[in-house]
Design brief:
The complex is a heterodimer of chains A (246) and B (446).
Chain A (H helix, E strand, L loop, with lengths): L1 E3 L5 H13 L4 E8 L13 E7 L9 E8 L12 E6 L15 E4 L20 E4 L12 E7 L22 E7 L11 E4 L3 H18 L3 H4 L4 E6 L9 E2 L2
Parallel strand pairs in A: 1-2, 2-3, 3-4, 4-5, 5-6, 6-7, 7-8, 8-9
Antiparallel strand pairs in A: 9-11, 10-11
Chain B lengths: L23 H13 L2 E4 L14 E3 L20 E3 L8 E4 L2 E4 L7 E3 L3 E3 L9 H13 L4 E2 L16 E5 L8 H6 L2 E5 L10 E3 L6 H7 L7 E3 L9 H14 L6 E6 L4 H10 L4 E5 L8 E2 H6 L4 H14 L7 E5 L5 H9 L4 E4 L1 H6 L22 H4 L4 H25 L15 E3 L4 H7 L2 E2 L3
Parallel strand pairs in B: 7-17, 8-9, 9-10, 10-13, 13-14, 14-16, 16-17, 18-19
Antiparallel strand pairs in B: 1-15, 2-18, 3-6, 4-5, 11-12
Helix pairs in contact in B: 2-12, 6-8, 9-12
The chains are: A alpha/beta (246), B alpha/beta (446).
């Protein structure tokens, strides 16, 4: 099924999507997406949604299952508090992508903005994953409680610029960030530290990146020509000594 | 006194000497902090201010000219609808029948204007959570999930539970949002305005880990702000995201702490699309908060609710949202006064826990609650029977409801709706001019 979004209000567009899903539509293409917010908000099941254009804020918020592909850039809040499913962005993602994400995958071919992966958390087999092909802005993985963030810095546009912004993983108390290349300690916020990649880390990163490279038609071996750096928490209870009582 | 003068009382020589400013508590706090170099934790509500404005407000009653109503003989309505009300109603006539044309916003239908506050599973035990949920069902009102997700045992009561979305987003997923009677965005709470919360990893048991969807033993950190809300526009975005997620079927609440600028903030929150605003006063309780924040930040609920109600009326948007007052509602008199000051309903937290057996020992943060309420220790939890607890909380709500009817009947009012914002039926006693002006209440005798 195809829907043209164009100048439709998000309420109208999203109602159409919900109706289509209720009618059993499993594959949906939306053309001329024009900043409409909350697309695929709280949608469940094995849907496939292709978006052409620029979806607005909170794409795939609370989403639990569907695969959404954006042929273009996305705005703020992609995968906000998302439960499961996959979001693929062929362009750039913006701020707070993957905020409080608890499962599923977000693959971005280009750069991502500020505060990406803030407070991501994992629970048993629900391990959220974010991969950014380009660079990431400040405050990446702040308060990160679980999951995996990978930043590759392979975009042509990011040549000569730093892969990471400042204050990476402040208050991190779970999960791991894998960065392709070296990371200066000055980039790290309080609570996070660099660790050597273990064999398990290599296996995890390879598995995720094999899928990522397959989606975007990249050469996995070339991605691994540069060594990765792991950023992980110093403690799972960073504020244990902050409080006292009589 | 001993009549035979055989007993004399002496101050224990080893006790601290008395001092009016350097109280024993003040000195003990310094001892603790000089030993540890850490933030002092405290439980329950503000202990610094003994004065409660409610206690200086008097309710009105009818004498002769406008007869009182006998609630034992005549119906008195406590039914309360929480949510956005239309500015006007349009009807259309089709043949002989008249149909409402105006589209109504989703509203909560409550049998009483008293709701049970948001207390998380984690801060309190599963038994306490279940007792409160069952009491809400029994009395036709709601309880709050708190921000720790919802244990699977609570889902059968979910149509009487307001599910909370806080900055930690713990346990927030589609089934949770869809299960609740409404969704509440927690921006702040009266016992700790402006700061986040840390549930220590030592309290993250297997079951809590499942409800919150985080690993066992890891700290559950709720950041001070929601990282997707830095403005009223951002708040509107989360309100709308939740309305989209629940397909416009449930009211979305926003809870804020009563802070200095609460009236202007509430106006923004209302314009952001909140169907109800919960305002939590500076005496509100908690399981754990930095003592310095608990005792020094925020303003009294009485002033907050009056100024917010006034502000929304002046801006012509009071119908757009419901106001819910919380933070030391101790009895049905407080309920009536809060409503007369402008609230649509109140929420009770500490009072409901006292009904469950809490003695206000102020040690919630230790996790060793002897009554099985603020603890996760299985040996302590068995002391609280959810069925018995539910009955006690239900009894309390019933008692207050009957008393509310007495208060209304005495005032010659036959529906709680007519008491809302009816400050003419309040008088201040021993309150200063500024306080009275903000409350919009005249002094007794005037």
């Amino acid at each position: 099924m195809r829907i043209v979004a164009n100048y439709k209000h998000y309420k109208e567009l999203n109602e159409q999507i919900v109706q289509a899903v209720e009618n059993g539509v499993a594959t949906l293409t939306i053309d001329d997406v024009n900043g409409q917010r909350f697309i695929a908000d709280c949608l469940r099941g094995k849907l496939k949604i292709d978006l052409h254009g620029t979806p607005g804020n909170d794409l795939g918020m609370f989403m639990d299952g569907p695969t959404v592909t954006v042929f273009g850039n996305a705005q703020d809040g992609v995968g906000n508090t998302m439960s499961s499913g996959k979001i693929i962005i062929h362009g750039d993602g913006r701020d707070i992508l993957g905020h409080s994400m608890r499962g599923g995958k977000i693959f971005v071919r280009g750069n991502v903005g500020y505060r990406v992966g803030i407070h991501m958390k994992s629970y048993k087999s629900n391990i959220p994953i974010i991969v950014a092909g380009g660079r990431a802005g400040d405050f990446l993985g702040e308060y990160m409680a679980g999951g995996i963030i990978i930043v590759l810095g392979i975009n042509n546009a990011s040549k000569g610029t730093e892969i990471l912004g400042d204050w990476v993983a402040t208050g991190q108390h779970g999960g791991a960030i894998y960065v392709r290349g070296e990371v200066d300690d000055s980039k790290l916020g309080k609570g996070a530290s660099q660790f050597p990649m273990t064999a398990d880390d290599e296996i995890t990163a390879k598995k995720v990146l094999a899928e990522y490279c397959n989606v975007f038609g990249l050469d996995l071996d070339r991605v691994f020509e540069t060594e990765f750096t792991k950023i992980a928490p110093v403690s799972h209870r960073p504020y244990a000594a902050l409080y006292t009582c009589e | 006194m001993c009549p035979e003068d055989a007993i004399t009382l002496h101050r224990m020589p080893s006790a601290m000497s008395a001092h009016p400013v350097w109280t024993e508590n003040a000195r003990r706090d310094v001892f603790t902090q000089s030993r540890t170099g850490a933030i002092l934790l405290a439980s329950t509500g503000n202990e610094l201010y003994e004065r409660v404005i409610f206690d200086n407000l008097l309710l009105d009653a009818c004498q002769v000219t406008n007869p009182a109503i006998d609630p034992l003989r005549e119906p008195i309505e406590l039914r309360t609808y929480i949510g956005r009300k239309p500015r006007s109603l349009e009807f259309e006539t089709i043949g002989d029948s008249i149909k409402l044309k105006t589209e109504l916003s989703p509203a909560l239908k409550l049998d009483i204007p008293i709701m049970i506050a948001q207390m998380s599973y984690g801060a309190i035990s599963l038994e306490a959570h279940e007792a409160l949920a069952r009491a809400a069902v029994m009395r036709g009102t709601t309880m709050g999930s708190g921000e720790g997700g919802l244990h699977k045992n609570l889902y059968p009561y979910a149509d009487h539970i307001i599910v909370q979305v806080a900055s930690g987003r713990f346990g927030v997923h589609p089934a949770y949002l869809e299960a609740g009677a409404g969704v509440e965005i927690k921006i702040g709470q009266g016992a700790k305005p402006g700061i986040g919360g840390h549930l220590p990893g030592t309290k993250i048991t297997e079951e809590i880990s499942e409800a919150r969807m985080i690993p066992v033993g890891a700290d559950a950190i709720s950041p001070a702000p929601h990282h997707d809300i830095y403005s009223i526009e951002d708040l509107a975005q989360l309100v709308n995201a939740l309305k989209e997620a629940t397909r416009y079927k449930k009211p979305v609440f926003v809870k804020i702490a009563a802070v200095h600028n609460v009236a202007a903030i509430s106006s923004g929150v209302c314009r952001a699309g909140a169907d109800a605003i919960v305002i939590d006063g500076f005496r509100a309780g908690t399981g754990a908060t930095p003592k310095v924040i608990r005792d020094n930040v925020g303003i009294p609920i009485e002033l907050a609710i009056a100024s917010v109600d006034q502000r929304l009326r002046e801006e012509g948007i009071r119908n757009e949202t419901s106001l819910i007052a919380s933070g030391t509602i101790r009895n049905s008199g407080d309920v009536a006064k809060a409503i007369a000051l402008g609230a649509d309903a109140v929420k009770i937290g500490t009072a409901a826990l006292i009904a469950l057996g809490c003695t206000v020992c102020k040690k919630c943060y230790t996790g060793k609650c002897a009554w099985g309420i603020a603890t996760q220790d299985p040996r302590l939890r068995v002391r609280l029977d959810p069925a018995e607890g539910a009955q006690r909380v239900s009894n309390l709500l019933l008692a207050w409801s009957i008393e509310l009817k007495e208060i209304l009947g005495a005032a010659g009012i036959n529906a709680i709706e007519s008491l809302r914002g009816n400050r003419e039926r309040l008088r201040g006693y021993g309150l200063d001019h500024t306080t009275l002006e903000i409350l919009g209440v005249q002094h007794a005798g005037s």
